[in-house]
Write a structure and sequence with these properties.
Blueprint (H helix, E strand, L loop, with lengths): L1 H9 L1 H13 L2 H9 L4 H16 L5 H54 L8 H28 L5 H22 L11 H6 L1 H11 L7 H7 L3 H12 L5 H13 L8 H6 L4 H15 L3 H14 L7 H26 L1 H25 L6 H18 L1 H11 L3 H33 L4 H18 L8 H9 L3 H5 L3 H4 L1 H8 L2
Helix pairs in contact: 2-6, 2-9, 3-7, 4-5, 5-6, 5-9, 5-20, 6-7, 6-20, 7-16, 7-19, 10-11, 14-19, 14-20, 14-21, 15-18, 16-18, 17-18, 17-19, 17-21
């Protein structure tokens, strides 16, 4: 406890900056993802009413559904576009300037949303959602990288995990504000979709009082004095020479290497193992079964004969559990390490899914089984929040150096946003075809991912970027699988050294 209090006092400026970054960083994408489902009926009625007033005839139900699907999905298209642009923007202008400009884009989107009903234009909702998506693609990447770069080694896991905490907080706030007791009503839904403009304004006026990240100032701007000043401003007046020396080593190693483009990162042999790890992390977190759990939540609750009016509040309880689980993850990640949280979390989640499939199969025979499935859903979400949810972003941040990180995050973000789009398109068909047995697919993915990360992911806790890079340079993929074969095969040895 004394250690946490001393850290809180010494790094209070850092914690303040983490709060400001979170408000306009991952909180808003989380809010956008969850909030859109609550006013869906109101927006559909608004589209039909607007069309009727313009053209004198109502829309067919299929056309309304198509327009609604476009409103939902255009956010992810915008996210993909924003992500693709982010790497170039971060290198050229820095993350701080990009976030400030991004806040103005969010406020423009919020104005489109807020005045769409007054202007009788559902097209403004489409434009607003698209702009929200672009901003989410930019700020998600900026937030994660910024957090990792402004934090000292001993707090890097905590700082990186806070991105997930704010993402989950945004989802919870979207669920709360979308309730009919707040803004999820016929008259207030435009305000519900526009309210995140306030958070963007708060970051816009607060962020200028904080510095750019020390590694960016030292390595890309070659401003040693500015780097030391930023470190003291964020970390207090203590001795930060060891951290500065690590940055100088990274700068020296990069002296002959310019900032790498996306294509250069993909072609670089020394980064292939990191890219493989990063893409597997992104795909495993998208395909871990969380989307299926949320999709099935309402059906499971109805089977358990819970009152229909109570179901939205119980679903909100699941979001709150995920939020507090992420907070717990941020407090233990620097103690247990990233690797253990990943393979251990995936293993527990796979076990819970195996039990859940059994329970869902038997709930028609035993009525009390439905209540067991509700408990298992909560356990799955808690395990996800404590384990992989926070560890994934931390590992991704720590396995790339300054020259490759922005482009690597573009690749990771592209994988994530494409996964969102693909899952949204094919997941309903999988559920329709397999029912509760769809969880077996996710269980298999969790088992394979857990084994892979246990065997091949090096621990990054408390290590500098150069130390982590050195570990990756000594990884021999085939040596781990076939330790005896490598001694007898010069061809395999040549293959292994490429990593």
């Amino acid at each position: 406890m004394t250690s946490y209090l001393s850290d809180l006092i010494q790094y209070r400026r850092l914690f303040q900056m983490m709060l400001v970054l979170g408000i306009g960083g991952t909180l808003l994408p989380g809010f956008h993802i969850s909030v859109i489902n609550y006013p869906s009926m109101h927006i559909k009625r608004f589209i039909n009413k607007t069309w009727l007033e313009r053209y004198g005839s109502p829309l067919h139900q299929e056309t309304i559904t198509l327009l609604w699907s476009l409103i939902v999905s255009i956010y992810f298209v915008g996210g993909l576009l924003g992500c693709l642009c982010s790497g170039y923007l971060f290198v050229k202008h820095g993350k701080k300037k990009c976030l400030l400009c991004n806040n103005m884009l969010i406020m423009v989107a919020a104005l489109h949303m807020g005045f769409s009903k007054t202007a009788k234009s559902f097209e403004m909702i489409l434009i607003g959602r698209f702009l929200y998506g672009i901003s989410a693609g930019v700020c998600s990447n900026a937030h994660s990288q910024y957090l990792g770069e402004i934090s000292p080694k001993k707090l890097r896991g905590f700082a990186n995990t806070s991105a997930v905490v704010f993402l989950t907080l945004g989802k919870v706030l979207g669920q709360i504000m979308g309730l009919r007791e707040f803004l999820g009503t016929e008259s207030l839904w435009p305000l519900l979709l526009a309210v995140c403009g306030i958070a963007a304004f708060v970051q816009l006026v607060s962020l200028p009082f904080f510095p750019e990240s020390p590694p960016y100032l030292l390595i890309q701007k070659e401003d040693s004095e500015g780097c030391l000043k930023a470190m003291k401003q964020l970390w207090g007046e203590g001795d930060h020479q060891a951290e500065f020396d690590d940055m100088m080593k990274e700068k020296a190693a990069m002296k002959s290497v310019k900032t790498m483009s996306v294509l250069e990162v993909m072609k670089e042999p020394a980064l292939r193992w990191q890219l493989c790890i990063m893409n597997l992390l992104m795909m495993s977190i998208q395909l871990c079964g969380l989307h299926a759990i949320y999709f099935y939540t309402f059906e499971v609750f109805r089977t358990a004969r819970l009152e229909e009016d109570l179901i939205p509040y119980i679903a909100l309880g699941i979001g709150i559990c995920e939020f507090f689980s992420n907070i717990l993850c941020s407090s233990i990640i620097d103690r247990f390490g990233r690797r253990m949280l990943l393979w251990g979390g995936y293993g527990l989640m796979a076990g819970i899914l195996a039990i859940l499939v059994t329970v869902l199969s038997l709930q028609n025979q035993f009525s009390w089984m439905a209540y067991c499935s509700v408990v298992l859903i909560f356990l799955f979400v808690i395990t996800y929040g404590i384990g992989p949810s926070g560890a994934v972003i931390s590992v991704m941040m720590e396995i790339f150096n300054q020259s490759a990180r922005s482009s690597a995050f573009v690749i990771a973000g592209t994988t994530g946003w494409m996964s969102f789009i693909v899952i949204g398109m094919i997941f309903p068909f999988i559920v329709e075809a397999l029912g509760p047995f769809c969880f077996l697919i996710f269980m298999g993915i969790l088992v394979i991912s857990g084994i892979f990360f246990y065997l091949f992911l090096p621990e990054t806790k408390g290590k500098s970027i150069m130390e982590i890079k050195e570990e990756f340079s000594t990884i021999h993929f085939r040596k781990k699988l076939l330790p005896t074969a490598e001694k007898n095969s010069p061809l395999e040895h040549t293959f292994c050294t490429k990593f």
